[in-house]
């Protein structure tokens, strides 16, 4: 579904990604792991059109999408659940969810999808009229995921969903991601928790200093192997 070929991207004069190749199969969960500063978030931002592409190609279903604006990527069915949640703290939980269906093509199904989000995350239903800024970290992450799903995306980019969460909440968030995978969703997951990420992935990439240093089926990967590459042993 997604093919990234020889991608270069960065911030102004600073290049971060160097000829990165990544493929994400339809209906599969692909995870990208690596140390801080490896370029994982930069890769998602480049795919989503949040930063310019300096070279290479991004294709979705065979169509070139490099340089496509963020709002057009959303219209094409790509949703990003950003690092740090980035919810609207001064809006209610329900208003945050409805923002995920802001585009006019999604509004007709907004109430149906809202009901589905409340089934998926019962805690959010209990707090639907509560200001989002008062939620716990785990609830905020649920809200960020729910907001992304409101647009019925064909592909979901998820950036560091476990960041700052207690272990029990990490388990809950990854159970949600596993459930979305079971529904046939296409997911590109950036994560530093290697054990949890590999446990639900179909394919694993390791980024290091802006380059892919490992690409392997998750079923063939051992954590010791990943850690040896991860820490450059």
Which helices and strands occur, and which strands form pairs?
Elements: E1 2-11, E2 14-24, E3 29-33, H1 40-48, E4 53-60, E5 63-64, H2 70-75, E6 78-81, H3 93-99, H4 110-120, H5 122-126, H6 137-149, E7 155-159, H7 167-182, E8 186-190, H8 194-200, E9 203-208, E10 211-217, H9 223-230
Parallel strand pairs: 3-8, 3-9, 6-7, 7-8
Antiparallel strand pairs: 1-2, 1-4, 4-5, 9-10
Helix pairs in contact: 3-6
Write up this protein.
By secondary structure, the protein is of the alpha/beta class. The protein has one domain (2-230): Rossmann fold. It has helices spanning 40-48, 70-75, 93-99, 110-120, 122-126, 137-149, 167-182, 194-200, 223-230; strands at 2-11, 14-24, 29-33, 53-60, 63-64, 78-81, 155-159, 186-190, 203-208, 211-217. The strands form 2 sheets. A 6-stranded mixed sheet has the order 6-7-8-3-9-10, with helices on both faces. Strands 2-1-4-5 form a 4-stranded antiparallel sheet, with helices on one face. It is globular and about 45 Å long. The mean pLDDT is 91.
| Unreliable stretches covering 5 or more consecutive residues | none
Strand content: 25-35%
Number of domains: 1
Radius of gyration: 17 Å
- Kindly report the average pLDDT value: 91
Q: Which CATH C-level class is it?
A: Alpha Beta
Shape, please?
globular
Q: Key terms for this structure?
A:
four-stranded antiparallel sheet, Rossmann fold, alpha/beta, globular, 10 strands, 35% helix, 233 residues, six-stranded mixed sheet
Short précis:
With 233 residues, this protein is an alpha/beta fold. The chain has helices at residues 40-48, 70-75, 93-99, 110-120, 122-126, 137-149, 167-182, 194-200, 223-230; strands at residues 2-11, 14-24, 29-33, 53-60, 63-64, 78-81, 155-159, 186-190, 203-208, 211-217.
């Amino acid at each position: 579904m997604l093919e990234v070929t020889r991608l270069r991207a960065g911030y102004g004069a600073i290049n971060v990604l160097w000829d990165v190749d990544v493929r994400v199969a339809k209906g599969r969960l692909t995870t990208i792991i690596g140390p801080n500063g490896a370029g994982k978030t930069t890769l998602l931002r480049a795919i989503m059109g949040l930063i310019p592409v300096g070279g290479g190609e991004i294709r979705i279903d065979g169509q070139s999408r490099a340089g496509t604006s963020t709002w057009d990527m959303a219209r094409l069915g790509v949703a990003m659940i950003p690092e740090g949640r980035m919810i609207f703290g001064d809006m209610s939980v329900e208003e945050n969810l409805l923002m995920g269906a802001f585009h006019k093509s999604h509004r007709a199904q907004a109430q149906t999808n809202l009901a589905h989000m409340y089934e998926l995350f019962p805690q959010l239903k209990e707090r639907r009229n509560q200001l989002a800024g008062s939620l716990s970290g785990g609830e905020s992450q649920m809200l960020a995921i729910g907001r992304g799903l409101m647009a019925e995306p064909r592909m979901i980019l998820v950036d560091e969903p476990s960041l700052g969460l207690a272990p029990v909440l990490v388990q809950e968030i990854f159970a949600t991601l596993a459930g979305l995978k079971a529904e046939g969703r296409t997911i590109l997951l950036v994560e530093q928790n290697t054990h949890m990420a590999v446990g639900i992935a179909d394919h694993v990439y390791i980024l290091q200093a802006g380059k892919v240093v490992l690409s392997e089926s998750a079923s063939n990967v051992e954590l010791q192997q990943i850690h040896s590459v991860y820490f450059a042993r």
